[in-house]
Amino acid sequence: MKKKIAFKTLGCRLNQYETDSLISQFGKEGYEVVDFNEEADVYVVNTCTVTNQSDHKSRNIIQQATRKGKEPLVVVTGCMANSKKDTLQQQDKITYVVENRQKGAIFNIVDKHFRGEITLPDKYESDPFNFELGDQGIHIRSLVKIQDGCDNFCTFCIIPFVRGRAISRPVEDVLENVRKLVNSGYKEIVLTGVNIGRYQYESSNFEDLVEKILDLEGDFRVRISSIEPEGFGDKLFGLMKHPKLTPHMHICLQSGSEKILLKMRRMYTARGFLEMIEKLKAHRPDINLTTDIIVGFPGETEEDHQQSLNMVEKIGFSHVHTFKYSERDGTRAVRMEGQVSGKIKTQRSEDMRILSEKLKRQFRSGLIGKSQSVIIEKVYRGIAFGHSQHFVPVKIEGASLSRGQQVVVEIIGIEEGEDPDLIGRIGQVGSLLSAVF
Questions:
Q1: In what order do the strands lie in the sheet with 188-192?
Q2: Which H/E stretch holds residue 77?
Q3: Do residues 206 and 198 touch, judged by C-beta distance below 8 A?
Q4: What secondary structure letter does DSSP report for 435?
Q5: Taking burial as the number of CB atoms within 10 A of a residue's CB, which of 4, 87, 217, 375 is the most buried?
């Protein structure tokens, strides 16, 4: 009988990309991939450790896996497997703890286990970019990993310690990956990594790579995943007008206070960030910008917090992913004076949430009456759902559409609620590049 395997992924898109690849690999090799809540022979937990909350969620999921019946094989991987490896290996019901650099070898580790060969994950040293293409049955869009690791060592961040130093994927490997995905029918390519703005392979930097991808043949669009405010030059600003490059970027701000950015050891100033955004909007006035903000960083005053709120509103981010500062062992911020109480962090997080909701509705309402190119991701009871080029959710009623179809719609309304869908009316079916950008 087929062995059953279930996956649970926490954290970033890079983790999701790597899980999707593993799912495809196990599926091709005859394993039956089932929901994590179902009974399985193998449970793979791809963890996150960026905050205390991430650790807590990862531990809960691991406990769920180890409490399943019939003593399943449990594999824990991801960033917690690096940061808490010794602790995890002491848990009897965890079969294998696989660090990030061996994640691509999980199939070999599991398959050899069932063939009676118990192996040590540490003996593997897999290529961080050697992940198979994901199955299109999983997603309409596909992530493409172009970079891994980070050299910035921000004072609050544990990622350089669990993902390692920065490394970039060869240009031709990236281009071939994109070609295969487009030929397989994927409509949207999402560039991802730990710090993609720092991409550098031989003489090609990030904006050079983006230009080469956009020049590839095919009817597809390219989305830039979460990016630090680095790698932005005149070429990238100019590329924002390219019809294949979606007008949406998630650019990590973290704080609007010059003092706090300096304490964080960020590689930019608030003033420089604002100037960069102004250049982006000059080339693409309709761009949808989203960001990350940390509240309650050591030494953050009410004035610093207000500066963050003011900058978020001035830029007009349509969504703010707000993190309460979380102490991470081994980082410099742990030893800083002026640690902020949990109560104040919670209030500041709520302030940012309220502002974010207001700006989200404001941006989405501004799309009413305009055309949007939508890729249909699911159809339920005659209603089609998808995301537009601005990465805004759109609901289309009364049209016979199917998953993967490309349509241009006119936005005629917006729903109520905290995360409102736009309501679209069908215009035409065809090229992703046919919408009015």
A1: 141-145, 188-192, 221-227, 245-251, 288-295, 319-324
A2: strand 73-78
A3: yes
A4: S
A5: 375
- Residue 330 amino acid letter: G
Query: How many CA atoms are closer than 13 Å to the CA of 181, on its beta-carbon side?
Result: 30
pLDDT of residue 418: 85
Q: What is the DSSP pairing of strand 319-324 with strand 393-397?
A: unpaired
Global pTM?
A: 0.85
Quote the Cα angle for 27-21-68, to 5°: 60
The domains found in the chain, sorted by start residue, are: 4-123 (3.40.50.12160), 141-364 (3.80.30.20), 371-434 (2.40.50.140)
Could you please report the per-residue DSSP string of 279-299? HHHHH-TT-EEEEEEEES-TT
What are φ and ψ of residue 365, in 5° steps? -65, -30
Give the SS3 label for residue 60.
Answer: helix
* Contacts for 271-275: CB closer than 8 Å, 24+ residues apart: 272/229, 273/229, 273/311, 274/311, 274/314, 274/315
DSSP, res 84: T
Looking at the predicted structure, is the pLDDT value of residue 75 above 50? Answer: yes
**pLDDT(209) > 70:** yes
Please answer whether residues 320 and 355 qualify as being in contact, where contact means their C-beta atoms are separated by less than 8 angstroms: yes
Tokens 């009871």 belong to residue: 381
Q: What is the model's pLDDT at position 69?
A: 74
Q: What is the mean pLDDT of the chain?
A: 91
Q: Which pair of structure tokens corresponds to residue 305?
A: 């917090």
Whether 429 shows a pLDDT value over 80: the answer reads: no
Task: Identify the CA nearest to 53 among candidates 282, 259, 321.
Answer: 321
pLDDT of residue 437: 40
Distance CA 101, CA 82 (A): 9
Question: Torsion over CA of 292, 296, 297 and 303, rounded to 10 degrees?
Answer: 100
pLDDT tens-place string over residues 356-371: 999 999 999 999 999 9
Per-residue pLDDT band for 63 (boundaries 50, 70, 90) equals: very high
* Nearest one of 309, 299, 210 to 263, comparing CA atoms: 299
pLDDT reported for residue 431: 53
Name the nearest CA neighbour of 83 among 195, 163, 165: 163
